[in-house]
Amino acid sequence: MDYFSAIRAFLFAAELGSFSKAANRIDVKTSTVSRYVSELERDLGIALFNRSTRGLVLTEGGRVFREHAVVVIKTLDDAREITSSLNTSPRGLLRVTMPRSFGLRHVIRHLPEFMDRYPKIDVDAVMTDDTINVIDSGIDLAIRIGVLPDSQLMARQLAVQRRIVCASPAYVAQNGTPAAPDDLATHAALRSPLAADDRWLFFHRARGAKAVEAAVQLHGRLRVDDVEALIALALAGRGIALLPTWAIGAALRDGKLVHLLPEWDVQPTRAAPAIWAVYPRKKTVSSKVRTFIDFYTAVFNQKGYWES
């Protein structure tokens, strides 16, 4: 018996509750999965599953075996990944997740170049604004934006995230141009319902200050938790928005949005946000993960990239 293949088949059958689904996952016949499990049961001298028309249910022995088998397979996978990371030619399947809007604008557009440069790497790109548990979901790498919470994950900064205050020319023509942060108190602000409070923190660039120079309380009838929706509302002249430069470079260049208070840096929180690559903590980072991070770090830090 190929013990490791049998254990993998058993683990997938336990996860999916079906021999046929496990077979599809590992691309073998259903009879092969059934045989693997039967051989394990003979070797262990105990039934691993209770079988019924509704599917498979682990026995007590099956639950105990699964708990330890998961550790064995993870150790084997880690050993293979650490060893393969020494290979100068990155290879294998890279599963990466990213926020949808950012991913479409700045990851997917460069993915053909990445895959041409590294033909032995296959990519599964998961586009979602949900925060996925990278370990439980088998994700190799997550791109996250903002201020990272404390976690057991490793993180590497891909780029600084800069936000700017902006509005449409029509809004400015109708409501005037704020000359100082305090002037925003009389304007309609497009706000986020996810913000801890309705304030923007301003730092005067010319003075080089990193203490808060102005904390402006916001007012406005619209609160939206989506970047694309905020952009659409700003373009429609519904108010002043604080938007990331990665999302509005084209709109600024084409004159559809106007940069307001350009001498000020602005943040919604005291902690400076950034664009991050986050990945499980391991003794050695696999070459496919390291290559992806290095590639996009170089792309994002090209001079003038965000403006273009």
Sum this structure up briefly.
This protein has 308 residues and is an alpha+beta fold. 38% of the residues lie in helices and 23% in strands.
Overview of this structure, please?
With 308 residues, the chain is α+β, with helices and mostly antiparallel strands. It folds into three domains: 3-84, Winged helix-like DNA-binding domain superfamily/Winged helix DNA-binding domain (Arc Repressor Mutant, subunit A); 92-161 and 273-300, D-Maltodextrin-Binding Protein, domain 2, CATH 3.40.190.10; 163-267, D-Maltodextrin-Binding Protein, domain 2. 38% of the residues lie in helices and 23% in strands. It is built from ten helices and 14 strands. The chain has a five-stranded mixed β-sheet with strand order 4-3-5-14-6. A four-stranded mixed β-sheet has the order 8-11-7-12. It has a three-stranded antiparallel β-sheet with strand order 10-9-13, with no helix packed on it. A hairpin with a 2-residue loop joins β1 (49-52) and β2. α1 (3-16) crosses α2 and α1 crosses α3 (30-44). The chain is elongated. The chain starts with a helix and ends in an 8-residue tail after the last helix.
Largest sheet: 5 strands, mixed
Count of individual helical segments: 10
For the biggest β-sheet, the strand order reads: 4-3-5-14-6
* CATH C-level of the largest domain: Alpha Beta
> Overall pLDDT, averaged?
88
Number of domains: 3
Distance between the termini: 58 Å
Percent in strands: 15-25%
- Topology as a string of helices (H) and strands (E): HHHEEHEHHEEEEHEEEHEHEEEH
InterPro entries: LysR-type_TF_proteobact-type, LysR_HTH_N, LysR_subst-bd, WH-like_DNA-bd_sf, WH_DNA-bd_sf
GO molecular function: DNA binding; DNA-binding transcription factor activity
Keywords: DNA-binding, Transcription, Transcription regulation
Organism: Paraburkholderia hospita
